[in-house]
Structure prediction request, 559 residues.
Amino acid sequence: MSFTYLLLEARRAMRNGRFMIFSIAFPVLLFLLYTGIWANGDKAVTGILMVNMTSFGALSAALFAGSRVALERSVGWQRQLRLTPLSGGGYLTAKGLTGMLLALPAVVLVPLVGVAVEGVSLDAAGWLRVTIGIWLAVIPFALIGLLIGQVGTPDSMQPIMSLTMMTMSMLGGVFIPIDSMPDWLLKIAHVLPSYWLGQVGRGAVTSDLSVNLGQAVLVLGVWTAVVGLGVVRRFRRDSARV
Amino acid sequence: MLPGGIVVIVNETGISAGAAVMLAGLRKSYGDVHAVAGVDLTIAPGEVVALLGPNGAGKSTTVDMLLGLTKPDAGTVTVFGASPHEAVARGTIGAMLQGGALLDDATVGETVAMVASLHRSPLPVAEALRRSGVGELANRRCNKLSGGQKQRVRFAVALVSDPDLLVLDEPTAAMDVQGRREFWKAMRGFTNTGRTVVFATHYLEEAENYADRVVLMRAGQIVADGSVAEVTSLVAGRVIRAAVPGATQSALTMMVGVTEVEVRANQAVISTNDSDKTLRELLATYPQAHDIEVTAVGLEGAFLSLTSDENAGADRS
Prediction:
């Protein structure tokens, strides 16, 4: 694996309209739109919307990158790569890193719009949390994407991805802010990694309904370990079958 | 057992040390089907070997085991003294697999560059593209290529690691005549540098034109192995074509050495395993026979005769 390889992977993804829309254009535009509708100059609400849209862009990019593995499997590209020095672990790492690379635009652009257009002001630690923090917190989503990509086919990818995105963003508190969630929905939200992803940034903009960073990191760490294990096991079974 | 008492000469030149490829006692079954049922094959560096056989003969399975993509049930694979896995990691093997294997959203140049970036000492991407005859397509998206161009891009992917052994599984399948010619032109450039090539093909003329050695497979086993001339000579026999007024099929079939007769209008096509005797009898019986032509059975005839019998050797349990 090399840096050139990662860059070429990222360049391929940039050509994809779906990626550009969901992971870059939507987060920025929706952030501007929602702030106009709901914030009414309330800096806390603006901050929450910024965190949520950053999370949305980053998680959809990370999911998207992994899911493309389904396509590579179906055309035999994975087999072709097995004839290079790239190991199985190297391939999975490369795919995971590609997901992380693709999550960067949202993590940079939405907070940038927050500062430049909406006048959000945070201390240095706060900005670290809503940028680098959220970025690192999408690691489990890159892995979930990889798992989907290994289980699904190019045909089933669309519905599986839509369902995952809906669940993560609606029930996880990205599109329906947890502030407005009824109690029962909030309980469901706690199960999803997207809730904890949101919490990584939320603590930086409001203390209302936010949990401490350590707890969020712990839960996301567990998600990473469990899904990561699933990805490796699935990959082993897949390559042994050929 | 083989039909018609055909003697199979299997190449036994034991160049075990320093061999490019050595397959020993290779077996692979999928359920009840013995895809590969005992293959022994040694290929010397620099040889260009064609792997021939009807569909289901075990060519692809053999190729997959040679590349380390499939694990044999029994037997060993050695590529330049190493396991396929080690050879792949060193970039010693380049391969064109059957099927698509190109990414629609990448350009030709990106595709080859991606693979190159994974190897330790690859050829420059432009060089690999040029050698494969796709230098001018570097910026073209892979989904905008013709079938022949796709195959040549895949050839560039196989070539970019600058391998010592190139393995091609049906490289020209679904190509038109022009595409095939251009592909083999690119291929010649590679074989002229003394590299080893193993290719599976359906096109016998490709084996005849480009291979030093032909390995014929049927039902998971090697049934013939040698130069084109050697393999062809395994099937003794000639074909006599002549205009024979008044001849009937049954009368011609009765003649010495005749194995098969086809009569249409006055034209007779007589397969025989002793053309001299058959011809003498033919001329004695039908002095008015004219336009006589005697030809040897070519590689196609050998192929058909060595691989056609479905039951013989079909190793199913």
User: Anything to note?
Assistant: Chain A has one domain: 3-239. Chain A touches chain B through 26 residues (CB under 8 Å). DSSP finds twelve helices and no strands in chain A. Residues 3-239 of chain A form one domain.
